[in-house]
Design brief:
Layout lengths: L2 H87 L8 H57 L6 E6 L2 E8 L2 E9 L7 E10 L4 E10 L7 E8 L5 E8 L2 E9 L2
Antiparallel strand pairs: 1-2, 1-8, 2-3, 3-4, 4-5, 5-6, 6-7, 7-8
Helix pairs in contact: 1-2
Length: about 260
């Protein structure tokens, strides 16, 4: 076999080996990718909540840093101005006598010490505010994790809190395991005292199916006293889509969790 033929055989063998190893690695990594992909999908609502809290923390921290940096810049400008004023009062230090030199440097030390004390005070207050912010962040994340753990224990979605059906129509939900209590009040020009009020009792299932019996306690004459509302919580846990039905009519509704 000549040298050219040998080189061709060697090259083909290298290509074969490269393709074979690439396929082997792909096969080995596929189960891992699937597992991680499933995990990220399952945990997305929890991770999203924690990320939102971290984003809120970072934003508030950035605002505090800017506020206290500005305070320090203001203190420095004030210090610099005082030093300039002191230099103007004593423009030719070489020609001053001992007492005048001592007065000059005493004034300068006083300005610098006052500036250092002011900066220390600003830093102390900033550290305290950041500490409070960090504690709040830790409490919020701990609360999110406790709620997630409770979800795992009960198997029920947790929807207690404030929701919004439309602009100006807010819904407050309290939850005790699978039982729900809902209250709503909003403005309506044709209702007594200009307000609509209703309450509802119902349930939520492990799959996020919600059923409510609505009772209007204050309403316009053309509103039904009772409604039957059924809906489903979305996978992210922040939107409820459903339908309200009453004698002679029905309407779809959407509730969005308020942040």
């Amino acid at each position: 076999m000549n040298i050219l033929a040998k080189n061709i055989v060697a090259l083909d063998y290298q290509r074969f080996l490269y393709v074979f190893l690439s396929m082997a690695v792909a096969v080995l990594l596929l189960p891992i990718c699937i597992v991680f992909g499933q995990s990220s999908t399952v945990e997305t609502p929890l991770f999203d909540k924690i990320k939102q809290e971290e984003k809120r923390y970072e934003l508030e921290k950035k605002v505090l840093e800017e506020i206290y940096s500005d305070k320090k810049r203001t203190a420095k400008r004030s210090r610099d101005q005082e030093l300039r004023d002191n230099a103007i009062i004593n423009p030719n230090i070489v020609g001053l006598n001992r007492v005048q030199v001592e007065v000059y440097y005493e004034k300068k030390r006083e300005i610098e010490n006052r500036y250092k004390q002011e900066i220390k005070s600003i830093d102390d207050i900033f550290d305290k505010r950041i500490g409070e912010l960090e504690e709040k962040n830790e409490r919020e994340i701990a609360s999110i994790l406790r709620q997630a753990k409770q979800n795992e224990l009960t198997g029920l979605p947790q929807i207690a809190g404030n929701w919004q059906e439309a602009e100006g129509i807010n819904v407050a939900i309290t939850q005790n395991e699978g039982s729900l209590r809902v209250e709503c009040e909003y403005k309506h020009p044709e209702s007594p005292n200009g307000l609509v009020r209703w309450t509802a009792d119902g349930t939520i299932s492990k799959t996020g199916f919600i059923q409510l019996d609505v009772l209007h306690t204050q309403k316009p004459d053309f509103y039904a006293v009772k409604q039957d509302r059924k809906g489903n919580l979305n996978r992210a846990g922040n939107v409820i889509n459903g339908t309200a039905t009453w004698t002679g009519g029905s309407a779809d509704f959407v509730w969005s969790r308020k942040k």
